[in-house]
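Hey, weird one. I pasted the SGNH hydrolase-type esterase domain-containing protein sequence into the form twice and got a warning about non-standard characters only the second time. First submission, copied straight from the form history:
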Amino acid sequence: MRPKIVLFGDSITEESFGDGGWGASLADLLRRKADMVLRGYSGYNTRWALKVMERVFPAAGDGGAYPSAVTVFFGANDACLPERCSGFQHAVILGVNPRKSLQHVPLLEYKQNLRLIVSFLKNRWPRTVIILITPPPIDEEARLRYPYIENTIGLPERTNEAAGTYAKACVAVANECQIPAIDLWSKMQQIPNWQTECLWDGLHLSRVGNKVVFEEVTNTLKGEGIGAEDLVVDLPLIEDVDPKKPLTAFDDQDQNAVVTSSGPKISPILGLKETKPTPAAHSCRLSPMAPKTEDKNRAASDDTCARSYEELGFRL
C-alpha cells in the first residue's frame, strides 16, 4: 500500500499545491512513493481546527486510512492581534466590529489547542509521525500594503513579535509531546532580505519561502525514516518488466508487502523497507493506553496529551 502524508493547516497549507508550492514539491519528490493529502483551510486557527478534527481525520472504520505522517501548520491566524483589522470583509454587514480580529486565539489557548490536536492524532494513529510547523515571520510594512479590508487605523493586523511568541509556544508544545517541530519563524529570518525573499504580502509564501518549507519538511521526514530514499515505488518500474513476458511483472505478490526489483519488502502502512530499522523516534508515539517507560518526564508529558484528548471527548 502506498503511504499517505497529510498536510493539515491554514491558507499557507491550502496554497501549497500552487505553482512552486511546498506541498506540490513534496508530491513531486515522492511521486509513486507516497500520496500527499491536502487538508488546508484558509483563515482557520487552532480553535476551528479542533472543531473539524473528526471530519478531517475520520477513523479507519469510517474510511480513514492510517497516514505515515501529518504536518500541523497553524498559528499565523491565531497570532492576529485582537483589536486590529479582521480578515472578514463581511464583518460590517453582520454587525461585527471589523477592527476586532475574529481569528485571534489567546496564546495559552493556542498551546492547549495544539496539545489537543497532537493528542487526537497520537491516539487515533499511534505510529503516525506528527510534525508541528510554526507560523512564519511577518513583514509588517507589507501587511499594510496588502490589507484584507480597508485599514483605517494604519496598523498591521499582525506583527513579527507576536508571530515569534506563538512560534516559541509551538516549539514548546512539540518538545512536551516528544514530536519534531520546524521553527519556520526563525529559519526564514536567517535569509537575507527575508521580508521580500520569503513572503509576497508580508504573510504568505513566495517561491523562496515555499522552498524553505519544502526543504525543512523533507529533512524532518528523512530524520523520521520517511525520506525519499527510504520509500520504494509501487508497482514495477518499466525497466523491471521482462519484454518477453511482460505480464509476469504484475503477478500477485504477498498481500502484506511489496517486493521491489532489488528484493526488500516494505511495510504495508509506512511503506518502509523491512531491512531498515525503525528510527527510535517512532517509539515515542502514544497509544490509547498509558506508555510503559522508565523515563518519568516523557511519561508525564505523554499522559498530559492523553488526558487532554479524553477530556475533549473525541472518539477513537
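That's the output from the first submission. The warning seems to come from a hidden character in my clipboard, not from the data itself. The chain has a mean pLDDT of 80.
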